[in-house]
Write a structure and sequence with these properties.
With 610 residues, this protein is an alpha+beta fold. It is built from 18 helices and 11 strands. Helix content is 52%, strand content 13%. The strands form 2 sheets. It has an 8-stranded antiparallel beta sheet with strand order 4-5-6-7-11-10-9-8, with helices on both faces.
């Protein structure tokens, strides 16, 4: 608050310079407790393209907190210890849980809760109310749990492909759509994750939310703009996909990938923000001119004298016009509003806060016993977190280019005749643009009667790869059956397999079997928390396994990468009968045996490039 403010002396300030050294030391210890989780968070978000801006958003939250600290200090009240200490206990329990489970998601949630607790602990409910719009930005910095971001990506891929297909139809461009693939007379284009619009969605929401907080928009205006920007993201992304197809087909393939594609994305992002801003202005003008409802210039609106105290109590000094003498109509008006402000602060204190008598807040004036107790609890958590972090410096993540390489597949990995199936061809495939498909595939085509089947090695993977998403993405309707036990008399019976029964609207049928193994022939399997929550026994097993691995009581935290998918794929014009399915299963188990006994896995530590 400015020193020239006519009501500055009415407001007790929260002065961090008066915080005891013991509390600052406690803050350093808390930072050490959170640091391993933050490293995991930043590594994770930077790896995933749609989360890459999250660290920047957290930095912006810090900047906005600093910008509002003076106003929040002016509104500060003394916090209630009966509320603070239970919250401290909850934070400590969640922090310990995040370290034990190595849960980045819990880690960032408890970080957000801790920031709320710190603001309340130093500034009470009055300061917390002023900071609430800033702290709500944490909601946009927390990744979606249980892989729901992947579900969202696939839904947005489908929607973008469908809407882009309608736009191409409207433009008279001949094409067909299969799932997320648009096929023209010249080429075919897949709507991959980067084209789904999820990056534009998350970043647009962040831009709109931060701008609304900085500009002090009303809650109704902020919520409206957050909703309407989602609409423009969907529209803009569909336009981008359609434009990419048209430009790549008729101008240059440069627009389909690389710098051309990125340039097109930047143009569309600017279009999205421009349309959102235009919609905000249009709706605001309608509300303000036709309905006489305020929409613009929230930070400088004149507030009637009779309602000033009510507005301050409700909005927590959010409006600069209350604090600026040049907007109040003179010193007498400002002095009177200062009195109303004092009464509004009394109403805030009536909610349970005491007055700020020492300028330090509850956390600023902790007793030595309280500090010692918290330190005694935090020290084991710090040791636990750093022990697990040092044991697993990659924090459960590894890049594809740093993984060891296994020997490439060759034609003689599988015999010419396998369980009555005749080998027709072999083909190695390398892909530069990795999306739904692996970077490298080695395929053997077999035939038996009127049925053809493709056996393939697809690699490398850093984790279990769910082929159901891949085939759904290219237009198949699937019925998945995950982690089925292999027949006892088959080779490697301890390995399970997953199967997909598939169909298309034209009557075509498909069948897929696959197993994912690491470089030591150990199965990689994971359906995430969504699957585990449906089976309590599986959930407990997963928790125990992940915890024991994390602290050196079981297998390594990371599997012996790279992972490889052993897959069988077959399709035909109609549905498969039971005899054909049984024959395909025989081929899969025999091929899996020969491949796992091939030179690719004979030397697990080999470093031959694929």
């Amino acid at each position: 608050m400015s020193e020239t403010s006519p009501i500055a002396e009415l407001l007790p300030q929260s002065d961090l310079r008066r915080v005891s050294p013991a509390v600052w030391a406690l803050s350093v210890l808390a930072l050490l407790a959170f640091a391993p989780l933050w490293w995991s968070y930043f590594t994770w978000t930077w790896r995933d393209g749609h989360y890459q801006y999250f660290p920047l958003l957290i930095g912006m939250i810090g900047v906005l907190v600093k910008m509002r600290w003076e106003a929040a200090s002016a509104a500060a009240t003394k916090p209630r210890s009966a509320l603070v200490w239970p919250c401290v206990g909850i934070v400590i329990v969640l922090l310990l849980t995040a370290h034990v489970l190595n849960s980045v998601w819990i880690g960032i949630v408890v970080t957000a809760l801790t920031s709320v607790l710190l603001v309340y602990g130093f500034l009470g409910s009055g300061g917390l109310w002023v900071m609430t719009p800033v702290l709500l930005l944490w909601l946009l910095a927390i990744p979606l749990p249980m892989d729901y971001d992947q579900t969202l990506i696939f839904k947005m891929q489908f929607f973008a492909s469908q809407l882009a297909s309608l736009l191409l139809d409207g433009a008279g461009i001949r094409h067909i759509r299969e799932g997320v693939v648009l096929i023209t007379e010249k080429s075919q284009y897949m709507t991959e994750e980067a084209c789904s619009g999820v990056r534009s969605l998350f970043s647009s929401l962040a831009v709109v939310a931060v701008y609304s907080v900085v500009s002090q928009h009303r809650a109704v205006r902020t919520i409206f703009n957050l909703v309407q920007v989602v609409f423009w993201v969907l529209i803009g992304n569909a336009i981008r996909v359609a434009a990419c197809v048209v430009l790549a087909d008729n101008v240059s393939p440069w627009y389909a990938s690389g710098a051309g594609h990125e340039m097109l994305s930047m143009v569309v992002f600017a279009f999205i923000l421009g349309m959102a801003a235009s919609t905000d202005q249009l709706v605001g003008s309608f509300f303000q001119k036709q309905l006489s409802v305020g929409w613009f210039d929230e930070g400088t609106l004149e507030i009637p004298q009779d309602h000033a105290g009510e507005m301050v109590a409700r909005k927590g000094l959010r409006l600069p016009s209350i604090l600026r003498g040049d907007k109040m109509g003179g010193d007498e008006m400002a002095e009177k509003r200062g009195g109303l402000l004092g009464r509004s602060r009394h109403s805030t204190s009536a909610m349970g806060d005491d007055s700020m008598d020492d300028g330090r807040g509850l956390l600023g004036g902790l007793s030595s016993k309280a500090v010692i107790a918290i330190v005694a609890i935090l020290l084991p958590i710090v040791g636990l977190g750093w022990f697990a972090a040092m044991r697993n410096p990659n924090q459960g993540m590894i890049s594809l280019d740093k993984m060891p390489r296994l020997p490439a597949g060759t034609e003689d990995f599988l015999p010419a005749d396998l369980m009555g199936w005749k080998r027709i061809s072999f083909q190695p495939i390398h892909r530069e643009d990795v999306g739904l498909q692996a970077a490298d595939s080695y395929t053997w085509v077999f035939s038996k009667g009127d049925v053809r089947a493709i056996v393939s090695l697809d690699c490398p993977w850093t984790e279990w790869h769910n082929l159901n998403m891949c085939y759904t993405g290219i237009g198949w309707d699937t019925s998945p059956n995950y982690f089925v036990d292999s027949p006892p008399d088959s080779a490697f019976p301890h390995l399970s397999f997953s199967e997909l029964s598939m169909s298309k609207s034209d009557g075509s049928g498909g069948y897929v079997m696959f197993t994912v193994v690491d470089r030591n022939r150990v199965e990689m399997r994971n359906l995430g928390w969504q699957h585990s929550l449906k089976d309590p026994a599986e959930l407990v097993r997963s928790l125990v396994s992940s915890t024991s691995k994390r602290f050196g009581l079981g297998e390594p935290v990371l599997p012996n990468l790279p992972g490889t998918t052993i897959q069988l794929y077959s399709e035909r014009s109609g549905a498969f009968n039971s005899e054909q399915i049984a024959s395909l299963k025989e081929l899969f188990f025999a091929a899996r045996k020969d491949l796992l006994q091939s030179p690719r896995w004979a030397s697990p530590e080999a470093s031959v490039a694929e």
